[in-house]
Amino acid sequence: MTQAQWLLTAAERGNPATRLDRRRADGKAWSEGNHVRPLVHGAVYFAELLASIRAMRAGDLLLFTDWRGDPDERLDGEGTEIGTVLGQAAERGVIVKGLVWRSHWDSLQFSQEENLHLGEEIEEAGGECLLDMRVRPGGSHHQKMVVLRHPGRPERDVAYVGGIDLCHNRNDDSSHRGDRQSLPMAEAYGPHPPWHDVQLALRGPVVGDLEAVFRERWEDPSPLSRSPLTRLRERAHREDTVADRLPPQTADPAPCGTHTVQVLRTYPNRLLRGYPFAPDGERSIARAYLKVLDRADTLVYLEDQYLWSPKVVAGFAEALRRHPQLRLIAVIPSIPDQDGPLTGPMNLIGRINALAELRRAGGDRVAVYGLENHAGTPVYVHAKVCTVDDAWASVGSDNINLRSWTHDSELSCAVLDDTGDFARELRLELMREHLDADEPQGRLAADALDDPVAAFDAFAKAAADLDAWYEGGCRGPRPPGRLRRYRPPELHPLRRLLAVPLHRMLVDPDGRTFRLWLRNRF
């Protein structure tokens, strides 16, 4: 396996303005010698993040980007609220800098006030947190990253990238009883929605790449918002709108492992004036998927919040048609996060059409599942994970939809392993949890899921057994596993008719200009 077969070259990234692919003397568009660990569940990530931040001292550098930040979200019990932890770090002399999406109005169920309050807490302690609205209309900054640098102690340098925001609902564990600090969702999820998510902990030279991602956004001279109303509010609230200069970037940490990592992103083609580091936007996440899917041969394993848009799943469908032995497993939320009379159909229509496209291409080689906890409550799948042929793995903020591939800012890391184990072990860890494979009632041999066909069949059997138990009135012991076969609800023809244009306009917009759309798909 050569890296260039699986990863994008600098030319294939399609964004010559970024500094990412000019950082290494050898011209490679990826870093080697890293050590990457998956942190499955918010509770695991939050506990490690808390320990890492508390170990920082004066002169260290803490950089973060986020979609939503709730300052009162506890990382690990009382006194560990994220606003308090970041503020205490700033008071110790740690240089704390953050970029959080300004968000649309809270009346639209976004997070404007929460992000503002997090920024205020950090600023009061001596850090700096800017509310960034440099997006396309209707878009968001969706990147979820923390970078910790330690001048003079580079062996401690670490970055965290994935799907987990520093906010409510995320602090759940493998029991999936939900975060005690919860936000309302669809009624089926209950008062404390169970939450499944994944973050990566990355050490080695890739930390320098991820710091460069932050610096490109931080050093953008464009105003944080083009909205006259927002700029008036900034002045009225005396918000910080000018980024202070960062200290010079230190040398990358030394190699420390066997993992090759490529940093992938989405930036939209902004109207009127683009990003200086991506004047025509960047769609390396989409391009990476299309390149890898061209090689897919045995198993694509997905965990995704949405799995929307026939345009996006077309690459997966083409792979299924080309390779008759290829199988695809997708784990998705069984119910949208919002299921009102308008929001429910808008959320569902893109998925219904996307799954129909996949099934036309792959037939019974395509299997889609939802999750539930042992109490029978659906688990909201927020993870953004893909493994292909147990060789390539991607974890990030991006979902399988047009918004993530073209419209919002996104950040992902693709990982190859010199030993060939990372993607396989990530897939197995996730699968074993969903099957209860390490519980007494569902115990499987350590190698029972190594074979892709056996893994595909094990998922199908577990879901069929649990479905049958429910259909039989829940008599007898509950079968092991947490998988339910996904069955999209039927939409009334009138609701379907109304949902299609609303989905395209509001839920899953396209961030490419027509000129770029004509040039290539992504």
Poorly predicted sequence stretches spanning 5 or more consecutive residues: 104-111
Number of strands: 18
Instruction: Name the beta content range.
Output: 15-25%
- Cα distance spanning the termini: 26 Å
Helix content: 25-40%
Q: What class would the helix/strand composition place it in?
A: alpha+beta
Radius of gyration (Å) = 22 Å
Mean pLDDT, as a whole number?
A: 90
Count the DSSP helices: 15
What is the makeup of the main sheet?
18 strands, mixed
Shape: globular
Pick out its properties:
33% helix; 19% strand; 15 helices
Explain what this protein looks like in three dimensions:
The protein has 522 residues and is of the alpha+beta class. It is 33% helix and 19% strand. It has an 18-stranded mixed sheet that branches. A hairpin with a 5-residue loop joins strand 13 (366-372) and strand 14. Helix 8 runs parallel beside helix 9 (310-322) and helix 10 crosses helix 14. The radius of gyration is 22 Å and the shape is globular. The model is unreliable at 104-111 (pLDDT under 50).
In short:
This protein is α+β, with helices and mostly antiparallel strands. The chain is built from 15 helices and 18 strands.
Strand-helix topology:
Layout: H1 3-6, H2 10-13, E1 31-40, H3 42-54, E2 61-66, H4 82-91, E3 95-101, H5 112-124, E4 128-132, E5 145-149, E6 158-162, E7 195-196, E8 198-203, H6 206-218, H7 228-236, E9 259-267, E10 282-283, H8 284-293, E11 299-303, H9 310-322, E12 327-331, H10 343-362, E13 366-372, E14 378-381, E15 385-388, E16 392-396, H11 402-407, E17 410-417, H12 422-435, H13 452-471, E18 483-485, H14 493-507, H15 514-519
Helix pairs in contact: 4-5, 8-9, 9-10, 10-14
